[in-house]
Amino acid sequence: MADVTTISEFAKLGAGIAIGFGAIGAGLGIGFATKGLMDGVARQPEVAGKAFGFFLLGAALSEACALYAFVIAAKLVGLF
Amino acid sequence: MEHWIYTFNIAGHSISVNLDTIFTMWFAMLVLIIFALIVTSRISVVPTKLQAASEKIIEFFWSTMDTMMPGKNRQHVPFVASLFLFILTANLMGQLPLRIIHLKNGGELASPTNDINLTAALAILVLIYYVAVGLKAKKFKFFIHEFSFQGIIMFLVELLEMFTRPLSLAIRLFANIFAGEVLIAICLGISAKFLPLPVMFFELIVAFIQATVFMMLTIAYVSSAAGSEEH
Q: Residue B62 falls within a domain, yes or no?
């Protein structure tokens, strides 16, 4: 029978694991988005401004995945 | 990050309200309403600086709608534009020094979008709007395109989407703003002199990006609801 303090310590461990795995996905996503931007701009330098807008959009969308993990982690440690 | 929760009873149900979120939301609404009143009170043929700036804002919305949703789109501009302007004002409010004022019970006057209740309300507004647009455009075919096995499966998937779309909209906006505040708090803990400044500047960019993302996704949902299926 684990007592309450042990369980809350394990919750902190779980929060760390959650945010770590979330960050992996978001990092891969933003990396691929940057690769796509660089490829497109190198091939067609005149679309740089328009492509950067779409890049920011995609980067924000994939960054949101890490933030879902952050919400779970914040719930686990009882931040809100 | 604590909220000032006020609880009261109506007919036996206890209802709790986050008062600090309501105050900051009203402040953002007040800023927008005063801006609109000032701009529209003195309209002239030769535009003043303020009028020219607000015309540029409207042209930004029109060009965004034209690229994202070609065709008849002007009737969606008021909804989308007010969503964008409200979220932008609310996000930018988080970097004002209003947080120095300490409220009761640990509440603080940060941006109202750091409360998931407000972003969830905005997301549910978007859900109601795009379902209404879809029903108006396609009548009952908005739910079931064809009576077949594939049609039923697609109906189930779209029913699931009706839950996941507002959920992801709400959590995305809330988590971005909330994570920014936590980041600033951590940087304050490490070194309160200069470390929070670049993070706060980054948060200014995040405010614009998140308002744009919310608007773009709203336009995409409305456009997919209103657009015709057959090509």
A: no
